[in-house]
Write a structure and sequence with these properties.
This protein has 487 residues and is of the alpha/beta class. It has two domains: 3-260 and 463-485, 3-Layer(aba) Sandwich (Aldehyde Dehydrogenase, Chain A, domain 1), CATH 3.40.605; 265-451, Aldehyde Dehydrogenase, Chain A, domain 2 (3-Layer(aba) Sandwich), CATH 3.40.309.10. It contains 13 helices and 20 strands. A seven-stranded mixed beta sheet has the order 14-15-16-13-12-17-18, with helices on both faces. A six-stranded mixed beta sheet has the order 9-8-7-10-11-19, sandwiched between helices. The protein has a three-stranded antiparallel beta sheet with strand order 5-6-20, with no helix packed on it. A hairpin with a 6-residue loop joins β5 and β6 (143-150). α1 (51-70) crosses α7, α2 packs antiparallel against α4 (106-126) and α2 (73-89) packs across α6 (190-203). The N and C termini lie far apart (75 Å). The protein binds NADP nicotinamide-adenine-dinucleotide phosphate.
Length: 487
């Protein structure tokens, strides 16, 4: 059996390598190789958009904009709902495709598909509940009427770590709001984005409402679109470094920006925590997507009284994980996305060990043709090590010891990031007190997973601007219009 024969229907890479998608048509081309990170071998080739292609996609989004804006909310809602149903119907194929191009283990990929589809269901519901306001002026001079209008054409840029969910978390609210979009997925995982476009077509998304471009020149393509006055929104998910560059670029034409950027999540375990629950939570917070998540626990701060038991428990659980290709049903920890990702993790771990840390399991890259790094636990990590400052984005759990609540809070806040944090304690008062002091957009209290389409997702400090999901996520794609009314 050939390699591709194992992956049929929506899981077949060849099915999604048909060209750029704009104006409801596939524009043929190649140029970007998509690799299987578990072998480093090419599985498909997708089209490579130029800046001119990007402007043609803006033309398509513009041609569809008035019609989509005028489409009744109920109708937009029903299209999103059908898209949700199609994702669920093809969930196993989509999960396999994600596991193949991204490398994450199948259970994680299945979780992602369910999470991703839920954004379409949630925003199918929210599409029909767009809020407005009516107020009286304090002076009595007139009345204040506030409407929300679609902001206009939106450029959506997504990372490789959640190729389906990061796209639906933007497309769902944008379409619900009445905007047309151009999605630029990450070069490592374009197939899932094209698969989503196919399902959207099947769901009845009109031509030009959703357009998808892959490119090896992300800055040239994005800058061309941001300079076009018809583009009014940039919604970006990715690293803080690229976010800063895009904010500067968007400033030139004052394009509205939503930024979901990097994280450096602290995971605080207090002496009074339920140890087994904290270990369960730690495994989810660390090992979902093999650590390649923006919300991944990056620093474990554990109080002295529970520290040794926590390290022993975490070491046993991490050492027991089965490593392999994501699409192998036995795999619990898949490969990293690229060889460079493995090199970065190796550098952070080696530096920490050189500074006095000890690996209780793992600690060195695996010598395989794929991009594998083993689950690793580090203890005695100096708090000043680079692993405490940088996003690890891999299956490495550095553990630090602390004594007092105040010390834990200071350590947790000692970062430019502020996306997610976790607290484990049986004392809810303590959790809320500590939670109030933590500089974070999201806090898991006795939970290792916080993502939910119905909740506002986003960070403070250099982890981002704005929120996705929840009831406010749709407003990121709308402008408030105030009518001063006298009658
Ligand atoms: P990245 O390198 O910042 O890339 C993200 C996206 O931006 C990709 O589509 C990339 O395209 C594109 N890009 C890169 N340089 C660009 C430029 N100059 N102009 C326009 N687009 C550009 O991030 P990543 O490595 O894919 O993803 C990992 C990062 O995303 C981590 O920092 C993680 O924390 C963050 N993340 C945040 C959230 C959140 O919700 N806060 C969620 C998931 C991930 P190419 O692929 O073609 O380079």
């Amino acid at each position: 059996m050939t390699f591709h024969a194992k992956f049929s229907g929506y899981a077949d890479p060849a099915f999604h390598a048909q060209g750029l998608y704009f104006g409801g048509e596939w524009h043929r081309g190649g140029g970007i190789a998509v690799l299987d990170p578990s072998t480093g071998k090419k599985i498909a080739e997708v089209a490579d958009a130029t800046a001119e292609d990007a402007l043609r996609a803006v033309d398509a989004a513009d041609a569809a904009a008035a019609g989509w804006r005028a489409t009744p909310a109920r109708q937009r809602s029903e299209i999103l709902r059908r898209w949700f149903q199609l994702m669920i119907q093809h969930a196993e194929e989509l999960a396999t495709l994600i596991a193949l191009e991204n490398g994450k283990a199948l259970p994680d990929a299945r979780g992602e598909v369910a999470y991703a589809a839920e954004f379409f269901r949630w925003y199918a519901e929210e599409a029909t509940r767009i809020p407005g306001e009516f107020r009286h002026t304090p002076s009595g001079s007139h009345h204040i009427l506030v409407d929300h209008e679609p902001i206009g054409i939106a450029v959506l840029i997504t990372p490789w770590n959640f190729p389906a969910a990061m796209a639906t978390r933007k497309i769902g609210p944008a379409l619900a709001a009445g905007c047309t979009v151009i999605l630029k997925p990450a070069s490592e995982t374009p197939l899932t984005a094209y698969a989503m476009a196919r399902l959207g077509e099947e769901a009845g998304v009109p031509p030009g409402v959703v357009n998808v471009l892959t490119t090896s020149n992300p800055s040239g393509v994005t800058n061309a679109m941001l300079a076009d006055p018809r583009v009014r929104k940039l919604s970006f998910t990715g690293s803080t470094g690229v976010g800063r560059i895009l904010l500067a670029e968007a400033a030139k034409s004052v394009v509205s920006c939503s930024m979901e950027l990097g994280g450096n999540a602290p995971f605080l375990v207090f002496d009074d925590a339920d140890l087994e629950a904290a270990l369960d939570g730690a495994m989810i917070a660390k090992m979902r997507n093999a650590g390649e998540a923006c919300t991944a626990a990056n620093r474990f701060y554990v109080q002295a009284g529970i520290h040794d038991a926590f390290v022993a428990g975490l070491t046993a659980r991490m050492a027991a994980l089965k490593i392999g290709p994501g699409y192998d049903p036995q795999t619990q920890c898949g490969p990293m996305i690229t060889r460079n990702a493995v090199k970065k993790i190796d550098r952070l771990v080696s530096d920490a060990i050189a500074a006095g840390a000890r690996a209780t399991t793992g600690g060195k890259p695996l010598e395989e043709s794929g991009y594998f790094y083993p689950p690793t636990v580090l203890e005695n990590v100096p708090t000043g090590a680079s692993i405490a400052r940088e996003e690890i984005f891999g299956p490495v759990a550095p553990v630090y010891r602390f004594d007092t609540d105040e010390e834990a809070v200071n350590l947790a806040n000692d970062t430019e990031y502020g996306l997610a944090a976790y607290v484990y304690t049986r004392d809810l008062k303590r959790a809320m007190r500590v939670g109030k002091c933590l500089e974070t957009g999201m806090l898991g209290i006795n939970r290792g997973l916080m993502s939910d389409p119905a909740a506002p997702f986003g960070g403070v400090k250099q982890s981002g601007l704005g929120r996705e999901g929840g009831v406010t996520g749709i407003l990121e794609f709308m402008e408030a219009k105030y009518y001063a009314v006298d009658y």
